[in-house]
Write a structure and sequence with these properties.
11 helices; 77% helix
Length: 248
Amino acid sequence: MPTIESNPAVASLATGSEPMGHAADALPDFTCPVYKDAYSRINAIVIEGEQEAHDNYMALGTLLPDQADELARLARMELKHMKGFTACANNLGVVADMPFAQEFFSPLRNNFQTALGEGKVVTCLLIQALLIEAFAISAYHIYIPVADPFARKITEGVVKDEYTHLNYGQEWLKANLEASRAELEQANRDNLPLVRRMLDGVAGDAAVLHMEKEDLIEDFLIAYQEALTEIGFSSREIAKMAAAALMG
C-alpha cells in the first residue's frame, strides 16, 4: 500500500512542514482555564460531528433502502459516541461550545444536504464515510496519547467503531467504482479543500490540547489515501485528486 511519502501531491497538502511530533511526553494541565476554553470548542466539534454522522447515515438510508438497517445500526453507534464525548466534557466541568461546532461543520453539512437532495449517493458517501470518518479517526489517534484518563478510555472505544464506518463507505464505493469514479473525483475536488480549511481553523485550540496541526493533517491524509487505495484508485489517480483539491 502506498505511503504518504510516496505521493508528493498528497504530501504537499500537509503545508510542507515537518511533523512536530506528539507532545505526549508532557500532558496538558486539564484543570487550567486555557485548556478548558480550548476543550470547549474541540469537544463541541466532536459531539457535533457524531450527531451529524448519525443524521447523515439515517439520511443515506433513504437513498439506499436495501442498506437502511445497516445504516441505522451505524447511526446508533454515532449517538452512543456523542453521549460518551458529552460525558468527557462533564467530567472536566466544561460546557461544549455547540454554536461554534455547528458553524464549523456548516460547509460540509451544506454540501452533504445538497448532494442528498440531488440523490447523489456517491458524494454523500465520500463526505460522510470517507472524509468525515478519516477526519475523526486522525483526530482521535492524535488525541488519545494526550487525553485525560476518562476521555482516553472513551476515545479508544470510539475509534474502533469509526473504522467500521470508514470500511462501510469504502466497500460500497469499491463495489461501484466504475459507475462512481467521475462523481467521486468531483466530490473530492469540492470537499477535500473544506477539510483542509477545517483542520487549519482548529489548529490553535488543538495545540492547547497538545495536538499538533502537522500530525493531524498527516494522519488524516494517510487514512484518506488508504481508503482511496482500497477503493481501487491508483497512486497516480490519488495524486491527481490531491492536486485538484489544492486548487480549490
